[in-house]
Amino acid sequence: MEHLLQELNEPQREAVAHTDGPLLILAGPGSGKTRVVTRRAAHLAATVTRAYKILAITFTNKAATEMRERIDSLGVAPGMTVCTFHALCAKLLRIHHDRVGVPANFTIFDRDDRRKIIKQAIADSDLSTTNWQPSAIESAIGDAKNHMVSAAEFAEQASDWRERTIARVYTQYEAILTKMGGLDFDDLLMRMAVVLSRDSQLCMDLEDRFSYVLIDEYQDTNDAQYLIAKQLTQQRKNLCATGDPDQSIYGWRGANIENILAFEKDYPNAKVVRLEQNYRSTKRVLSAASALIAGNSQRKEKSLWTENADGARIRVVEYENGDEEAALVVRDLAQRIREGQDASSVAVFYRVNSLSRSLEEAFLREGLPYQIARGVEFYNRKEIRDVLAYMRVVVNPADDVALLRIINTPTRGIGNTTVNRLKDFAKGTQQSILEVVNTRSAEDLGRSAKKLKTFAELMQRLAPLFELPPAKALDTILRESGLRAMYAQNIDLDDAPAGNLDELLSAASVYQEDFPEATLIDWLEHTALVSDVDAVEDGRAAVTLMTLHAAKGLEFDVVYVIGWEEGLLPFRRRDQIESSDVEEERRLAFVGMTRARKRLTLSYVRYRMMRGITERSVRSPFLDELPYNEVEWPTKAPTRANKRQIPSGELPHDIEEWHMGSLVRHPIHGLGQVMEITKGARRTHVDVQFKNGSRRSWVLEFADLERVDFDEVGDAR
DNA sequence: AATATTCCCGTTTTT
DNA sequence: CGGGAATATT
Asked: Counting beta carbons within 10 angstroms of the beta carbon of residue A484, is it exposed (0 to 12), middle (13 to 18) or buried (19 or more)?
């Protein structure tokens, strides 16, 4: 087992060699975390325990797969459990369904399903979706579940009318879920956390089953996940948490950075290992990123260092507008690629997806291959969801969401009127829609009674499929339902649905081979929880475009991060006075920067068009936090000859902080002072007295003015 | 029931 | 400006 401890630096070795008791691995970017985690798991399996006693939990399937593969390659006996939090909970809830109080065949509802049910719940509560936005209610409920607040508790705590109303919808939402035998993603975690806190015997049994627990990306855990981890390791405290508070970027999704920050308080005798040596980036990249993140107060300090080369200075570039930015960034990276840089090791990151459009156009114009990393897709395609809906009803006939999807797909003459009638019959009863169809008389069902009968017979025929292996069941469904025929008809060259169905079929076959014992329920669960089928293809010779969030965990030789502007990089919603969480935004910028191995370019524009409106923008204050000498600052605006740049500034550049007395600069009139500023409902006017004697006024948005810091006027930098 | 039109809304999104 | 969804049209 000595080889597991080879080729490690000192803290890495310490972490790998640690066996019993709590361990916190604070892993800076590029510090070899995965290597340490996998080695440690292998080491445990070889020394103090057996592989099947180890549980490794990740957040994404991708991470789980990678970890599993790397552990396998270390020559560990098979049997280790490596899975996502959600998959773990789904499995455990399924096994212990009677103790939890959920049906054994519960369906996992995804975001789409959830939205539909929420709309239903809003309607059931006699509210209009105009006044009560489904998305707002959805996030309120999701929030509650992240904090393990049940509908009843929510209602109890509700202090105003709005909250009481949301409580009503939440209650109704839960009622619908229960009736349908469904759990949403948040439920998987919440139910598990709740059952563990009530059932100490179960905790002990599970701790017996999994003696060593390892959690990756611990900074991203929410309250439920935190509790699950805690309860799974109650007796022996064999919890190893790895992560980096500086890379916590999912606070808005319920992740609680305190979980990792307070780890030592939760586990007082915890061993803490800091992985600070970086093997990825140049010294310049690292010091710039470090300087930026030092601006945060909520952190566990690390001093990142590297033996890598100094590297090129970080470039900060100013462009006139988004189109120019896109065009010139693409031209710049095209040049790099021409010089021999591999396109697949080049990436462009942005804060919001909308910035990808102009980039895409630029890539197309330049004729350069690119790929946009957007997850989901495959299992979200209509044809895939159609088939899966059939399977869902087969497995769980109470699943009305799925049933309503397929009742007229392919079209079989069952229209809205009929469907509404069915819904009415089912409402307020414990009957599912399918039961209504099966039990109501022909008179009740109305004109479409015959067609409903035919449909009911179809479902009757499909019902026994639930005990068949997935591929076989899938094939039968495709044939019997008429879906295959339906999709065989339209052969769009673009994306052939029929081909996707075949792909799904082969995925089922592969699954079946991998897990010969698996049932349709397992396969369905798999499809609900594993959706990264066609995420980013690596190895393709294309430049990668993605959001900063999506970039976490990846690395590229050459990185561009665009849109370093006030309101966009520390993102601020227009209607929000407070910028949401500047520290999290700074971490996001940090994550983006630390993806770069060799070259890093940050850009901002003077005018940014968003939602069809062009607005004057102010460069991100984050740029001012970068170390002055490590950065190649913009010298002059490329298309504005006589515009002087401010290389660094301490004062905020926020347009909303313009007030009387502000010093400004105009390309023609030169230096001036704001004499008057009037905020109208739509436009803000400025009146400026210039040093050269002229006095002018503009609408601020269109004024070619730039704010100047007081101490820069004398400073001829 | 399929298609055209208008309307609305706008950050990130591991499962 | 542009996508998705609700609504109107044939």
From this structure: buried
Task: Read off the pTM.
Answer: 0.85
pLDDT, tens digit, 9 for 90 and up, residues A640-662: 433 333 322 222 344 455 677 76
Per-residue pLDDT band at A639 (split at 50, 70, 90): very low
**Exposed e or buried b per residue across A186-206, where buried means at least 16 C-beta atoms within 10 angstroms of its C-beta:** bbbbbbbbbbbeebeebbeeb
The per-residue DSSP string of A288-326 comes to: HHHHHHTT-SSS-----EESS---PPEEEEEEEEHHHHH
Query: Residues with Cβ < 8 Å from A262, sequence gap 6 or more?
Result: none
Separation between the CA of A414 and the C1’ of C8 (whole angstroms): 21
Q: Are A136 and A118 in contact (CB under 8 A)?
A: no
> How far is A363 from A358, CA to CA, in rounded Å?
9
Q: By percentage, how much of chain A surpasses pLDDT 90?
A: 66
C2 C1' closest Cα residue: A611
As a whole number of angstroms, the distance between CA A516 and CA A324 comes to 55
Is residue A46 within 8 A of residue A4, CB to CB? The reply is: yes
Instruction: Give distance CA A24 / C1' B14 (Å).
Output: 21
Q: How far is the CA of A24 from the C1' of B7 (A)?
A: 52
- Mark whether A695 is an active-site residue: no
Dihedrals φ, ψ of A128, to 5°?
A: -100, 145
What integer best gives the mean pLDDT of chain A? 87
> Is A377 an active-site residue?
no
Q: Is the pLDDT of residue A110 over 70?
A: yes
**A712, pLDDT greater than 70:** no
| Active-site annotation holds for A595 | yes
Residues whose CB falls within 7 A of nucleic chain B? A 59-62, 84, 86-87, 111, 130, 133, 135, 185, 217, 220, 250, 252-253, 255, 351-354, 375-376, 408, 411, 413-415, 529-532, 546-547, 549-550, 571, 573, 580, 611-612
Confidence check: pLDDT of A663 > 90: no
Among A216, A324, A400, A585, the one annotated catalytic: A216
Alpha helices (H) along A211-261: 223-232, 258-261
Q: Please state, in angstroms and rounded to a whole number, the distance separating the CA atoms of residues A102 and A245.
A: 35
Q: Does residue A33 carry a catalytic annotation?
A: yes
Higher pLDDT, A599 or A483: A599
Cβ A263 vs Cβ A235: under 8 Å: no
pLDDT digits (tens, 9 = 90+) for A257-297: 999 999 999 999 999 999 999 999 999 999 999 999 999 99
Yes or no: say if A40 and A16 are a contact pair by the CB < 8 Å rule.
Answer: yes
Question: Of A191, A237, A299, A595, which residue is the catalytic one?
Answer: A595
